[in-house]
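Appendix B, example 12.
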Amino acid sequence: MPRLLQEVPPQEAVEYVLPLFRELVLDPDDTVQEEFSRSLGDVMWWFLTHCRVVVEDNGETDGNASLQAQIHHQTFTPLFGTLILSSNGSVSETARLSITTVLERIKTADDKDTLARGDHVRPPLPPENLWKAPAQDYAMDDPEIQEEEPEIGLFGPVERTKIKQEILAAIVVALGRLDLRWEDEGSEKPLANTGHNVDKRRSFSTPSSTSSTPSTSNSAHSSSGSSPTVPPAGVSSSSPVEPSPSPDRAALKDPSHHQPSSHGSDAYQLNLGNMMHEEDEDIYYDEQATNGRWSTMRLIAAVAANGTADLTTEVYFIKDVDRSVQDPVYWVRREAAFAIGALARVVPIDFVLKDLVPMFERLVGDPHPDVRQNILFSLPPLVQRLPLEVRRKVTFDTLTALSEDPEITVRESALDTLSETIYAFANDPQGPPEFLLHMYLGRKEDKIVRNGTRLITFEIPPPLEAFYLDTKRPLTLAFGFPAVTLTLGKERWEELREAYLDLAANRMNDVKRSLAAGMGEIAKIIGADNTRRDLVQVWWNSINGKDSITRLRAIENIEALTGVVGKETGLSLWEGVAKNWEDKIFRVWRERKIILQELLKMPDLLGSEILPVIGIIEAQALLDAEQGVRDIAVENLPKILGLLSPQQDLLDGLNGAINQLLSSTFRRRMTFAACQRSIFLASVDGGQKPSVALTDDMLRVIFELSQDSVTDVKISVARFVGSVCDKFVRESESVPDLLAEIIQRLSQDSSLSVRSFIPDPATLLGGQQSVTFPSSSEFVEPTATLPAPGAPIRSRHFSKPPLPRLNSSVSAVDHSSIDVHLTNASANGVGMAVERVYGDSSVASADLDSQVPMQAGGTTGDTGRMSLDNRGHLAFNAHTYPSDDAMDIDNNTVGAS
């Protein structure tokens, strides 16, 4: 929907799109509600930035405003309220994320205006997690995508302030006080009538978007209202708001605390009541009120964690959290436990000591284990804010109590929290307390627990004994070891060394992965001597192990380790990597990809001694079976040739490996052409003239490859030729005769994929300077026109028209593209083994024995792709990605009708 709105004028979006949101919110299909709630933040932002936000509809508008689409500031309030109160967790969670997205964008825009005025903005919050694991997920190779700076448009500072207050007051706070509103209104303003049917209770009217039309304005006037007041901070003088000095429950009951108007939260609360439905109204109100309090706690935690609320509002949140800490429903208290930790990071220390610490201590002794478990996650951010003596007392009281908890989930959470809690004492001159280190490292007799040799018994030990014997303790220790090492420093490594070596002896894959992931950070802390003594052997065990993820983690840390241990040990590490590559130990292509990425950093650390290893690994990478690895090797090739140039023997060895690509399989010939293109472009970019960079030897080899029988090789040659021609034209140099001959040949090739990279020979060779070159990296072949019946079809992409059903053992009606291996072809018929594929993955196979009249020309062993058009013609293209690397094939085209 956000993309579609870009194509709609704002006035039409207000009149025709906005009314549809009500139906989407009330859709009986939860997946529809989930998708809508996921996009609602972007949708709301589009309306706010493209329409004029109005607060009151008094019928007075200036001339310019009447020409702009207008929306009321409460338009999206009931939509968010309904979605957040959904019984579907996915719907409510995505709605909360959308709210925080809008608040974050408002904060970004406000901070930009503040900095433009030369004022100071509130400093960014510390990380939500005091310590994060050093390694990223091995499957995530790309950096995290950063959101672009939000568009502001018509959404000025006054409007942003009002919308922010509306979100915080009418959604975040009001949802937690539904029960107070219902109790207060009672008989005066019933929220629903038990005589109404379900459909009537589901109906609601959002505060309509005001526009230049009278009907829309009247609708907004009749269905909107004021929201509960949250004391604002920094409100512009153009829109004064009276802050409430001490907001509490009475504030919502006492009319003096907010002025009623034609737009109020009464309508909003009525909308919430009408949008949801239950047969029993009393149960309905109770469930919805509880759900509202639960949602408010989650919203407060999210808003506080992101730092999108002003300080006054965050302090105001404390009273709502205090109320929820005493809630009779445990899952409201459970969410309040998270909110305590989020608020502890942002509110002043006085409020932490006076309000948050008592709430925290109350929940530590909560009767429900889920609440006690969740409050542990608020311990690290809370104790980090406390004075040193109070910090030690709160930590001791909490962990000694919950480490002996009768519930295993609470004890495990206490164990999980230990490393982050230790890190919270990083600024303590005395370091973390001894009891805390003892709880983390375990007892002397727990060595068999750390190294994983303890036998599992069926006896149930006492809670404290079970805490130290927990089978998850080794993994928890391994995961948190970098944080604990950073807290203690190099000087106290001896206190941690024994436990680390015990973990290194553990054979659990998860433990080995965590140790390998944190090895680089630990090495930087403990120094070269300790690393060579204690960590290098652990790295060797990881790199030679059978678990690919452990090897990957070790490879990711090789740069950090090399920088710490020095040249001699670092060179031995890389020699081991090269040997493992040759021995095919690195079976996962991501391992080899990361090695290539780290390889070019090593000359700065190890000097010329690493050059032989670089040459060996690069030669292996050019022969790699994985396209992604070969691409990186080709990209690195010019830099590596430059590094090897001082040592002629190494340079000759790599050039020899490149030349050997010519006499091998077609994929290696493709790699050779790609190497020549990379070398040529790097030479030109380095300042050489194209006529100098394009050597006679290079041109003669490319001339031979342009006559290759495999189309994919000629495509690689065509990409090279296209890049060469581009450089010649830019430098106004004449094209060599041999290159002109290659251009003439490839421009007449039967494959459109080959011709697409070649410029028009008449234009290029005629001396004209305006030559258009197609993209060499993002070309998509256009769909060819349908050939005449019986004519051969050459295409790599096929459309999907309705297909006739074949008289065979497998139906082709639903699958227009089928991989075929010809087993026996003749002029009279063909028997084929068919493998149905979706993209690159084969999912089923069968025999297709139908007698299909075919043109002669198919040969046993040809592999290609068959497609059927809507007239029943069958096209077979044999040159597309042959399956056998060791055998080149000629292009064979078979047509059938």
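The CA atoms of residues 599 and 614 lie 7 Å apart. The first strand starts at residue 52 and ends at 54.
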